Amino acid sequence: MNKEMPKNFFWGNSTSSMQTEGGWNEGGKGLSVYDIRSATDHTMDWHVAIDNFHDYEKDLDLMKEMNMNMYRFQISWSRVCPTGDGAFNEEGIEFYSRLIDDLLARGIEPMICLYHFDMPLALAEKYNGFLSRHVKDAFVSFGKEMIRRFSSRVKYWIVFNEHNLYFTDETFQISGYEKGDRSLSDLYAIFHHTMLAHCEISAYLHKFDQTAKIGGMVAYTEIYPASTAPADNLAVRKQEEFLYQNLCDVYTYGRYSNEVMTFVKNNKIDMDYLSGEDDAILAAGKADFISFSYYRSALLDASLIPAGEAPNRYLNEGLCLDETLPASPWKWTIDATGFRNIITRLYNQFGLPIFPIENGIGLYEEWDGQNEIQDDQRIQYHRAHIQAMKDAIFIDGADVIGYLGWGLIDIPSSHADMNKRYGAVYVNRTNHELLDLKRVPKKSFHWFKRILETNGNTL
Ligand code: BG6
Predict the structure, then answer these.
(1) Is this prediction's ipTM beyond 0.90?
(2) Does the keyword Hydrolase apply (predicted)?
(3) Ligand 1 pocket, mutate which of 18, 117, 410, 413 (most atoms under 8 A from CB)
């Protein structure tokens, strides 16, 4: 059996703009909903993040030193278009143009993500974010402009980070929804508008530049039934259909799942679906690959789910832990086999190349100012997950494009700020003290460097 990793396999790092850039009110940037978070969320100062707006070069050098050949970053919509639907800000566009050139100069392939939870504030306040078709259209215009500006240099694109979260209760926090009754109709309409946007942008990229590729992206938690009870099995199958299949059906076949649309009909949900017009948009927006984030697995216990709850929503209530498996300090179950199963299942079912673009473990870490951080647990985590991916490739036959770790240079976590670090490089700041923001390689930095040097062939 050939066990050589594919040539041109991508290894790299993955981030979002609000978790890296800082410079929240500089360079002509408009406000996003995230920029006002500091005023209400006192756990940390979000306005600096790891200060990449002022200095990203040292981080690119570290990625290069780790032998990475891809970096997934996000273009902040409000940096390049301050109001979201008005004039473009050339200074913001120039920032990303420079970043792309500086990546390419180091032999690092850029991957662009267009949206990662940070709605321009004006669009949230005026229109309720993605609940509005006007906002969907404004987002599509922004996406098309970025394609015109950058696709000659950027060949890998994704539209929404963790697109299936726009079909869960988190929808209301991440889509710019400011007011409303959080009804199922609102939730489904927001989801539908984001799906249309994904498809319109994908179709445009395919027309504009046939050498560029665009992927769907979902947050994948491997879910097992909490018991052998048929009800648990049914609940797992249903959430799989609503939260994963339904999106991958659009990415692959250009239509929603029949089971989901039956639920819409039976429950008289008004998802603002314009038949004819929207059918054509969905059909034209197929993806070139399926990407996903993976951190953990969990159990689903049907008895915890309130009666009548929609399957796209009930993960919030029904999830529980398998206490027999190891877990991170945040009780995220560590399960590399789940990772392999997802890769193989997605490839078997949809036949598109698969790309895990977020993986990692959050740990409490504090640098003493002198000694290297010994993050053996992180090394173990990545080693096990890369091995599981190799099993999916070599034993199960999956076609995998690459492997990107999440936040491999420390960034604030979305749930636990600087207390929860994913990096192979320590960034010297705390929630409230910016300190010197110095970059300090941890033990895993040297590990990544060694294994990426051999294209992951030795682990
Ligand atoms: C993903 C998000 O869900 O998980 C990131 O895309 C986030 O924004 C990452 O940081 C890890 O989650 P957390 O909560 O540990 O930061």
Answers:
(1) yes
(2) yes
(3) 413
